[in-house]
Amino acid sequence: MDDHMQETNTSGLDSEHIRYDEEVFIAITEGNFSNTIPEFCECIYRYSMSDTGAIDTDIAKNYIGELKKILTQLPRPYTIIQEMHHIDRSYRDTYYAYFSNQHFDVKRYSRRLSFVRGIIEADVFYSSNTKVQEEIALNFMGACVINPLSTGVIGRTLIDPQFLISEDDRPAYVRVSNFKLHIYGKKLLVKAFPYRMQDEETMRCAEVTLLNLLEYYSNSYMDYRNVVPSEILYMEQKHSHERVLPSRGTSYPVLTKILSEFGFSPRLYSLSAIEKYNLSQVTQEDELKRLLHYYIESGIPVALNLVPIGNNGAGHSMVCIGHGNANPDLIKKAKKHKWISWEHRNHCHPIIDSADFYDRYVIVDDNQPVYQVRPFNQLSLYPDMKVENIAVPLYKRMFLDASDASAIARTVLHHKQLGIDIWSDGFLEPQEDVIIRLFMASSNSLKEYRSQTLMDIFAREAYAMVPMPRFVWVCEIYRESDYASLKAFAEIVIDATSVPGRGHNTRSLILMHYPHVLGIRFPEQVEAEFNEMLELDEDGLFPGFRKNLRKIE
Asked: 423 - beta bridge partners?
């Protein structure tokens, strides 16, 4: 860290001499944080909100407490940089659409707090020294908007998860986007996922879920545009039989319809609609969690609808953006759920689904601090709530969904001509268990990753040359002993623009890579015959694909 940003001089930082509502640069150190953070939070809440008489209510104390949690978690020392007259795009939109129509005044301006590691004063921040400015950019942790409301005070928040996910929850794997913020004339970047609270008047949990998802996608892909809350409410009104303001929330069928209006081709899964199999130990909850995991492993943020067990009471909505580490206890349990083709039961290799190894997921929930890592059966702070629906905002040409991709992968792996029984003979022990890892990836990312990690030059060339659609489903195959180090011995690649067809046939198969052999299929080849397989002399175990999620260690 640059000398200008060291914690060398904290004189003049006595909280008694600081008007926190007016101070631009506020240093948070190990010596002052226990007093400064509570005083700072209460002060800016009092001066930011329109209804100043509500400062001592339980609701106000709750929101002050939520801000305290964020500020206390950030690594010290750091500096808070305040913008007292910040124009937040989403809040200003709801202000003109709703709050400005109310009889009693509601303030127009938000307050934005930006966080930079180290102690920074005005002369350093505004310095023209290039090295100093690079240090500030490197140490930027993110920003949090404070809206002038009695509820839903914490607005658009973009903070790098490496500064908020606790040590006990690491490693965690998350999907983030690179956001650009302009702070007092400086362009700073932060890798984050959007977070905000519901104001309970214009935005409830489902609308907040939509706004966070749409902001992430518009920032990450050129296919989608940025959306403001009033546009979400307008689309909601189109599919509602009553007024949408003040907001009473929305259902997940309407939520997916709104996603369609903004250019997605969403898929909605319901727990109660999942088929039950009498002789299977895999429950409906297990199947729903598997589907969730396939999409999260694909780097696709998913909207989750939770309802009280017994369906008595209001539901809740949140976004899932990642997962925790594999649970050793679940790995043992997953072996009981392994899949065996009945037709080939006497000689096939049983398939264990790696999705069953995980039970902790990273969520963005307006009722909790951002980036919480929680068990699948206890994602909400409210007790006795379960996941009833998951809504997946898929790209419009992703025709093959996770359930069909999973069925196709299993069919291929036990296929009498294309499966592991044939092409891994001599590599695996007879009827040895194998582990699969299923996910979607962009073909460009997959080709780039394999060109850097495969040993055999002909394999690298084959991956590079074979035509692929924009997105593909990938099924990596592991031996049990190699999964911990994520070293696969085989892989199949499936066309995500295809449809399964009757019996989940193999017509969507693009590439199959088994030990020392590789087959590719070009678009003009109608059937997946793979009569000629490329022999690989220098082939070996290869690392699992890791470009969809960011690892927080």
From this structure: none
Tokens of 240: 């509602």
Contact 477/420 with Cβ under 8 angstroms?
A: yes
- The CA distance from 8 to 468, in Å, is 56
Cβ of 78: how many Cβ atoms within 10 Å?
24
Q: Which residues contact 115 (CB under 8 A, 6 or more apart)?
A: 74, 78, 79, 80, 81, 140, 141, 142, 143, 144, 159, 163
Helix (H, G, I), strand (E, B) or coil at 272: helix
Residues 6+ apart with CB under 8 A from 334: 352, 353, 354, 356, 357
Residue in this structure with the two tokens 């005083």, named with its chain if needed:
39
CB atoms < 10 A from the CB of 96, how many? 12
- Which pLDDT score, from 0 to 100, does residue 7 have? 43
DSSP class of 413 = H
- Per the CB < 8 A criterion, the answer to whether 43 and 21 are in contact is yes
What is the tens place of the pLDDT at every residue in 19-71?
Answer: 888 999 999 999 999 999 999 998 888 887 766 555 566 777 788 889 999 99
Q: How far is CA 126 from CA 19, 136, 189, in A?
A: 21, 10, 17
pLDDT digits (tens, 9 = 90+) for 445-487: 999 999 999 999 999 999 999 999 999 999 999 999 999 999 9
With CA atoms as reference, report the closest residue to 328 among 300, 356, 306, 293: 356
Distances (CA, A) of 532 to 495, 519, 528: 20, 7, 11
Q: What one-character DSSP code corresponds to residue 195?
A: B
Burial 203-235 (b: 16+ CB within 10 A, else e): bbbbbbbbbbbbbbbbbbeeebeebbbbbbbeb
Q: Which of 15, 124, 33 minimizes the C-alpha distance to 73?
A: 33
Alpha-carbon distance of 493 to 440, in angstroms, equals: 9
Close Cβ partners of 356 (under 8 Å, ≥ 6 residues apart): 286, 290, 330, 333, 334, 337
Q: Hunting for tokens 């069953």 — which residue is that? A: 356
pTM of the model: 0.94
* DSSP one-letter string for 33-90: HHHHHHHHHHHHHHHH-S-GGGTTSHHHHHHHHHHHHHHHHSPSSEEEEEEEEE--HH
